[in-house]
């Protein structure tokens, strides 16, 4: 018993019965009624007090009232009207029952005023009067109908005796407040009479009753039914809540789940959302559908986790036949209300025994099925079921469900369209990014790309480009914006970078040409109205494994991070160039000598920036995650993403490129200074053959001798001294390079039949896998690359 319940009084007989039917408390009023003392009955079965104890004690599920013949201590019987209700004690447990029997009161401390009596007991409003002890002294017929109890049996009961609902405890608390302050008070409650199926909303006026001296002697409670206003307000609140809670993300599943959560328990006890399976060819359904229909459940919500009155699970596809609410509503194109007691579902449930058993088990009595339709397209259906709420779905409930479902359908359609566009953009993005990285002797690389969690796929990209002379270029860029347009722009810029890298431009020169391209793209995007908004950032680096030097230049991009062997990660200090697309501003390069096994980290700003976090914090987390990156680069990539990205995923695209640098040993490089004398070409060929023999590459001697002879002869004849020959090899490639100080580049041409020259470069092109020219500050270098596997 709660401490605020005055249990021991002589006005009513009270007893508390445990869940197993044992008496646990016995009031003084119960002793006066039946003569049994507390110690004689507590702990004994309550059924022993019945005059006819052959049957079990009628313990209620919620509330019970009726006349019982009880056994008196002297052996006689007492006929008493008993009111019992179930209540849940504090903490967990099966609960208990409070049984009360009013006794005839010997005192009457209410003011004996005929006007008050007339106002109270002849009022058309539901009215009842409590005395100073909060005992019920009288009710009119309207209040008795509301309470669902006979008026002549209620005298002497307390609010908590009438029922164990929270509103009765709140009424008693407010009654005490009015008695203490002497001021009237208004309160709202939501309850139903036992004889009615629908709950009603009541506005109760608690007014103090005073005697001639002004002393408060009781409280008059007058209840006014404002159910319709209450329901209208509840409907508006639900619509408002649906507007704010449904569609918070562009995710179909989450949006459907939000619809289900908003409607439980405000509108139904169980809600499921099921979507049509996409048609072949990606088409969408429109108009009415003919049963049977296949629906995939994407969301559901019940009062508790263990009470879904449905056999289907989220993610499963269910085929609904004709006469099922889901199929009928889709076929009709409007909402369908089905009642189990009325037999509306007999045809469907006769074909689905599992569903029939669950509906019977949970007591589902009404199902409302509403089609999900948006922009002329039928997306699926939302089903609402009631089993805890005893009321059937009314016309207002249907209108409310249709309003909420229509809002959710638009959000789901937006999410589906966004998902399709995102998938298309992501497919385009991934097709434009390198699927595999080239294997080079200069470095080992690992990459990661993550699209933004919410804003969509953007224009981040990365690339690793093999260059001549065993060198390799690394590039990371970020196009402004998101969506297909950004991905397409990214693809054009990546192609341009590869083209510019192929002619061996210096990093600062390459960014200058790329800046011009972005300007042209902006003009094309803007059309006649002016330039468009196309912009990008880029970081471009070239690593030479022979000299172990790396040249870098950036255009508005975050600087890279270097992790030296056994050292701490730190940023490389590079000149900060302007973003691409501004035009007219120069770019600068910086050159660094890096030790073998150093790791370079290139990334886009989506990795270190996020909402609500300072960029410096992201940079610090990145340096911490990269420090000591001596293990596999793939593991380092995963560690960086897990450590640096904010919870909830990246707010912008993330591109990450890690490269472990490997210098080429000097034993794999041979260099000769060539005098400008054609007569010395033969001795040079001999030195090349000796070097190839020392490298155990004799299988490549014949081809290499011809290539060297042609390149050296051309340099002596058309170039300018000093002339230098360099051979570089690794396990798979042999490279021949001839450099001179003449900036004029040769070009390939087809010699005529009687021409004495013009076949040298054609011969080189035929004997090698690749050849080309790169310009340097001192002149040019002509190079040719042979694949050793082809020489075996």
TrEMBL record:
<protein>
    <submittedName>
        <fullName>SpoIIE family protein phosphatase</fullName>
    </submittedName>
</protein>
<dbReference type="InterPro" id="IPR013656">
    <property type="entry name" value="PAS_4"/>
</dbReference>
<keyword id="KW-0378">Hydrolase</keyword>
<dbReference type="InterPro" id="IPR029016">
    <property type="entry name" value="GAF-like_dom_sf"/>
</dbReference>
<dbReference type="InterPro" id="IPR036890">
    <property type="entry name" value="HATPase_C_sf"/>
</dbReference>
<dbReference type="InterPro" id="IPR036457">
    <property type="entry name" value="PPM-type-like_dom_sf"/>
</dbReference>
<dbReference type="InterPro" id="IPR035965">
    <property type="entry name" value="PAS-like_dom_sf"/>
</dbReference>
<feature type="domain" description="PAS">
    <location>
        <begin position="16"/>
        <end position="44"/>
    </location>
</feature>
<dbReference type="Pfam" id="PF07228">
    <property type="entry name" value="SpoIIE"/>
</dbReference>
<dbReference type="InterPro" id="IPR052016">
    <property type="entry name" value="Bact_Sigma-Reg"/>
</dbReference>
<dbReference type="Pfam" id="PF13581">
    <property type="entry name" value="HATPase_c_2"/>
</dbReference>
<dbReference type="Pfam" id="PF08448">
    <property type="entry name" value="PAS_4"/>
</dbReference>
<dbReference type="InterPro" id="IPR000014">
    <property type="entry name" value="PAS"/>
</dbReference>
<dbReference type="Pfam" id="PF01590">
    <property type="entry name" value="GAF"/>
</dbReference>
<dbReference type="InterPro" id="IPR003018">
    <property type="entry name" value="GAF"/>
</dbReference>
<dbReference type="InterPro" id="IPR003594">
    <property type="entry name" value="HATPase_dom"/>
</dbReference>
<dbReference type="InterPro" id="IPR001932">
    <property type="entry name" value="PPM-type_phosphatase-like_dom"/>
</dbReference>
């Amino acid at each position: 018993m709660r401490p605020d319940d005055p249990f021991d009084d002589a006005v009513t007989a009270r007893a508390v019965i445990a869940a197993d039917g044992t008496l646990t408390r016995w009031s003084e009023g119960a002793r006066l009624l039946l003569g049994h003392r507390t110690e004689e009955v507590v702990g004994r079965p309550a059924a022993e007090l019945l005059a006819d104890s052959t049957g079990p004690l009628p313990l209620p599920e919620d509330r019970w009232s009726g006349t019982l013949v009880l056994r008196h201590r002297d052996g006689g019987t007492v006929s008493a009207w008993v009111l019992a209700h179930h209540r849940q004690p504090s903490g967990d447990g099966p609960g208990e029952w409070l049984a009360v029997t009013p006794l005839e009161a010997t005192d009457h401390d209410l003011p004996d005023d005929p006007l008050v009596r007339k106002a109270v007991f002849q009022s058309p409003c539901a009215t009842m009067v409590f005395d100073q002890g909060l005992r019920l002294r009288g009710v009119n017929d309207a209040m008795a109908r509301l309470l669902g109890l006979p008026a002549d049996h209620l005298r002497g009961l307390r609010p908590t005796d009438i029922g164990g609902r929270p509103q009765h405890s709140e009424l008693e608390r407010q009654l005490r407040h009015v008695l203490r302050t002497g001021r009237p008070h208004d309160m709202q409650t939501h309850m139903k009479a036992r004889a009615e199926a629908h709950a009603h909303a009541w506005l109760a006026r608690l007014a103090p009753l005073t005697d001639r001296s002004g002393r408060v002697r009781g409280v008059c409670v007058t209840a006014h039914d404002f159910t319709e206003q209450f329901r209208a307000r509840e409907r508006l609140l639900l619509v408002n809540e649906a507007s704010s809670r449904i569609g918070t993300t562009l995710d179909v599943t989450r949006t459907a789940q939000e619809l289900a959560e908003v409607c439980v328990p405000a509108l139904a006890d169980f809600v499921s959302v099921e979507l049509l399976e996409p048609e072949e060819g990606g088409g969408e359904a429109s108009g009415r559908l003919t049963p049977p229909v296949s629906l995939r459940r994407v969301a559901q919500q019940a009062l508790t986790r263990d009470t879904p009155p449905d056999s289907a699970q989220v993610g499963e596809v269910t085929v609904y036949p004709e006469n099922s609410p889901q199929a009928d509503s889709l076929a009709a194109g409007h909402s369908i209300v089905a009642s189990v007691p009325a037999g509306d579902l007999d045809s469907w449930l006769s074909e689905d025994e599992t569903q029939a058993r669950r509906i019977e088990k949970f007591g589902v009595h009404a199902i409302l099925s509403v089609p999900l339709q948006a922009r002329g397209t039928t997306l699926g259906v939302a089903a609402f079921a009631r089993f805890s709420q005893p009321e059937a779905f009314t016309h207002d409930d249907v209108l409310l469900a249709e309003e909420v479902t229509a809002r959710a359908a638009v959000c789901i359609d937006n999410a589906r369209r966004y998902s399709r566009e995102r998938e298309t953009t992501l497919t385009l993005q991934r097709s434009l990014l390198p699927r595999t990285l080239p294997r080079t002797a200069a470095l080992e690389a690992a990459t990661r790309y993550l699209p933004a969690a919410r804003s969509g796929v953007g224009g981040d990209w990365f690339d690793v480009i093999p260059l001549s002379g065993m060198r390799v270029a690394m590039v990371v860029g970020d196009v402004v914006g998101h969506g297909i347009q950004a991905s397409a722009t990214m693809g054009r810029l990546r192609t341009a970078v590869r083209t510019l890298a192929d002619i061996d431009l210096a990093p600062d020169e390459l960014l200058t040409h790329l800046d011009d391209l972005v300007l042209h793209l902006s003009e094309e995007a803007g059309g006649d109205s002016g330039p468009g908004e196309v912009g990008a950032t880029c970081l471009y680096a070239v690593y030479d494994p022979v000299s172990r030097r790396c040249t870098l230049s950036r255009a508005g991009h975050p600087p890279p991070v270097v992790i030296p062997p056994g050292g701490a990660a730190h940023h490389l200090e590079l000149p900060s160039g302007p973003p691409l697309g501004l035009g007219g501003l120069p770019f600068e390069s910086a050159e660094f000598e890096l030790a073998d096994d150093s790791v370079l980290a290139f990334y886009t700003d989506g990795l270190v920036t996020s909402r609500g976090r300072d960029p410096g914090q992201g940079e610090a987390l990145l340096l911490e995650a990269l420090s000591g990156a001596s293990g596999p680069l793939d593991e380092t990539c995963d560690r960086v993403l897990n450590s640096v990205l904010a919870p909830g995923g990246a707010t912008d695209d993330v591109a990450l490129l890690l490269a472990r640098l490997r210098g080429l040993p000097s034993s794999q490089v041979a260099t000769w200074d060539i005098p400008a004398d054609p007569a010395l070409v033969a001795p040079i060929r001999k030195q090349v053959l000796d070097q190839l023999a020392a490298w155990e590459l004799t299988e490549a001697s014949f081809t290499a001798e011809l290539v060297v002879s042609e390149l050296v002869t051309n340099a002596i004849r058309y170039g300018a001294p000093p002339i230098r020959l360099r051979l570089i090899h690794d396990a798979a490639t042999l490279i021949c390079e001839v450099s001179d100080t003449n900036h004029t580049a040769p070009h390939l041409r087809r010699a005529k039949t009687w021409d004495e020259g013009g076949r040298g470069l054609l011969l080189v092109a035929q004997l090698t896998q690749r050849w080309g020219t790169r310009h340097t500050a001192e002149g040019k270098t002509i190079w040719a690359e042979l694949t050793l596997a082809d020489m075996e």
